[in-house]
Fold this sequence. Notes:
Blueprint: E1 2-7, H1 26-48, E2 53-58, E3 76-78, E4 98-102, E5 123-128, E6 131-132, H2 135-145, E7 150-156, H3 157-166, E8 171-180, E9 183-186, H4 189-203, E10 218-224, H5 227-233, E11 240-243, E12 246-251, H6 254-270
Parallel strand pairs: 1-2, 1-4, 2-3, 4-7, 7-8
Antiparallel strand pairs: 5-6, 5-10, 8-9, 10-12, 11-12
Helix pairs in contact: 1-4, 2-3, 5-6
Amino acid sequence: MKILVSADMEGATGVTWPADVLPGTPQWERCRSLFTSDVNAAALGFFDGGADEVLINEAHWTMRNLLLENMDERVQMLTGKHKSLSMVEGIQHGDVDAVAFVGYHTGAGTQGVLAHTYLANSVTGVWLNGVRASEGLLNAHVAAEYGVPVVLVTGDDLTCVDAEGYAPDARKVAVKDYVSRYAAVCRTPARTAADIRAAAAGAVTLAGRYTPVDGGPFTVELEFDAEHLAAAATVVPGVAPSGERRVSYTSATMYEGIRTFKAVTTIVSSAVEEQYG
Length: 277
């Protein structure tokens, strides 16, 4: 049995503000160990539950944040950028029995600690077939297309609520409770590690590939905080204006949909000016 862990940082234990997750800051350096603790706890729990392999896919920013040297010796870690499926890279090879979303967060334009969707501020909302979408929802649809269940989600309490919409059967662990976008009531790493490990061990019973779901077509709409960013996004073939500061596109599969989404956000990020956005 092989489990894929998609590991993001904003939803990690103790993380509450931008400096906690921006590579190179003293706070990021400190929070790397907290992030690593959450991810390692999930891996340990999966092994406790009977998993044979755990592959961790780094999914935050530079995708070079976790401390491999602090991980259980049985894990393998996919680190670095430029991956075909970004946050859920590795799910497409037919050997993954379940996926866990560890350190996840709510989507752009919603309540939640460090809430965003791919870009920290420039994207103010994302909708998938008319439903407001977090990274968790987008990635869950990719997983479904490969017949892989989401069995564990960790993050703040509102992230767990969000996950009820796309993975109702998955085990959820809240490592902190939302107060504002930059504040939370946090549990200690000793407690969250124990909670995550226990939940992961139980989540193994939910693992097992199923018949892939053909849920397409998928229409994705993005809203930006500046008009010129929407214009920049239309450089991507198939992406068209859909309203003020909005663009949309339709893909036959979520594999194509998430790759187009990544192309759009990459181009838009390059069009952001330091002071005026």
